[in-house]
Amino acid sequence: MSDQAGFSRRRFLQASGLLAASAPALAAESVRPEASGKGEGGVPPAFARLLRKADLPAPRGARVVVVGAGWSGLSMAKYLKLQNPDFDVVLVDRQASFTSLPLSNPWLVGEISMDFLCHSFFDAARNHGYLFLQATVLGLDREARRVFTDAGVIGYDYLVLAPGIDYDYERIGVEDPVEQQLLAQRYPGGFVNASELLTIRRKIQQFRGGTFLLTVPDGDYRCSAAPYERACTMAAWFKHNGLPAKILLLDMNNEIKIMKDGFARAFSELYGDYIEYLPSSLISSVDVAGRTVSTEFDDYRFDDAVIYPPIRGARMLEEAGIMNPHSPEKTANTDPFRYHVIGDERVYVTGDSRSQPFSRGGHTANSEARYVAEVIAGHALGREVAWRSPQTMCFSAIDIRPMRAISLITFYRYDEVKKDFAFDRTHAVEQWDEVGGRASVAWAEGLFQDMFYE
């Protein structure tokens, strides 16, 4: 496919939703660029740059654009090249480097280094034979198969969207965008980007006592075990440092969602003086200035907090018209076995914005990306690929110094009666020990090697 052949300024504006705002400028009489700060046709040079093709080599084979360089996108880019070396793969992400959210809870309390979590997109691209482009995606034109970015336009033969999640603050009663922004900055959830993690680490290390509030969202959310793990690692930090602190863990679910026995015993046996666990705490509002979270029955004041709201699929899906309107988490409207957008076998959605109720965790994302890469390669060759379950492997730190962890491994099956996916072949280790702690680091190290270096 030729890259960006024959696209128009008007089509770009339509695709990116900017036509109405830009129409007066585009319709205005042209003036000299040096007098107006505008380029040819009255369009500002910075805006005109968006209309050109991105500075990428011409594709030598079918071009596959992967949007989002998290665990899913990185794995997808690598395995697409392994499945079909003739694919011309471009990985696009707005971040300049990778910071792992899995295993970040032990980092928050000093158990591992930031160097362990951070890696270069350039290394991954060079080692696996694809291109990396740091850019922000502005919109899609699926009819013409183009992705619009702030670095220019990229044509595609196949498109994989792995954009992760956005927070859905409206589901905890925070509807004003200004209040949402204040809440996100003052009490970040810690499941979207590295800046959140840096803020949370500072909060923990500077906390001197009082009530530290944590929340667990309802529905399907990113990494089911992580909020409970965070409560344990923070309690361990407070305990080791002798701080007069209480962690108030408000869970919007009726009970602990995963590895219930292990976490419940840790809350009572190790951290009975530190963690107060309150299930069925459906949050109805948050007073950011007053440092208060309200449920239907109670108000909870805190000295500091990490507020993890319910999640939703990335807004990119909604803007592109491929969100499932019936999904509470606003996930993609995709085929549950092939991952392609319904009605469009050239566009796929993987990772935490996909429709299937599999774990939203790093290992699951890596595992399913290997399968979807086969599906796309098979489609290009007219070959069917049999469905197989992704694998979920989850380690959760319970204590620090030394780090002790519990773990879970599971696969999934499709229930023909319920017409939905269910757990299959599950193995849990809910007795924490140092072996689990060492295994969690080795697990992450192995997957970093897979995504970046091998």
What labels describe this entry?
globular; 15 helices; 454 residues; FAD/NAD(P)-binding domain
Please sum up the structure shown:
This protein has 15 helices and 23 strands. It has helices spanning 9-16, 19-27, 33-36, 45-49, 71-83, 104-108, 114-117, 121-128, 177-186, 194-206, 226-240, 260-270, 315-319, 362-381, 434-453; strands spanning 63-67, 88-93, 98-99, 118-119, 131-134, 137-141, 146-149, 152-155, 158-161, 165-167, 210-216, 245-251, 275-278, 283-287, 292-295, 299-301, 304-306, 311-313, 340-341, 344-349, 392-399, 404-415, 420-433.
Strand order of the largest sheet: 5-2-1-9-20-19
Tell me the structural class: alpha/beta
Approximate strand percentage? 25-35%
Mean of the pLDDT scores? 92
What is the C-alpha radius of gyration, as a whole number of Å?
A: 23 Å
* Shape field: globular
Number of helices, where a helix is a run of at least 4 consecutive DSSP H or I residues: 15
The biggest beta sheet is recorded as: 6 strands, mixed
Question: How would you explain this protein's 3D organization?
Answer:
The structure is a single chain. With about 450 residues, the protein is an alpha/beta fold. Among the domains are: about 1-50, no CATH class; about 175-305 and about 390-454, FAD/NAD(P)-binding domain (3-Layer(bba) Sandwich), CATH 3.50.50. About 35% of the residues lie in helices and about 25% in strands. The protein contains 15 helices and 23 strands. The strands form seven sheets. A six-stranded mixed sheet has the order 5-2-1-9-20-19. It has a four-stranded parallel sheet with strand order 13-12-11-17, with helices on one face. The two termini are about 30 Å apart. Residues about 1-10 and about 15-35 have low confidence and may be disordered.
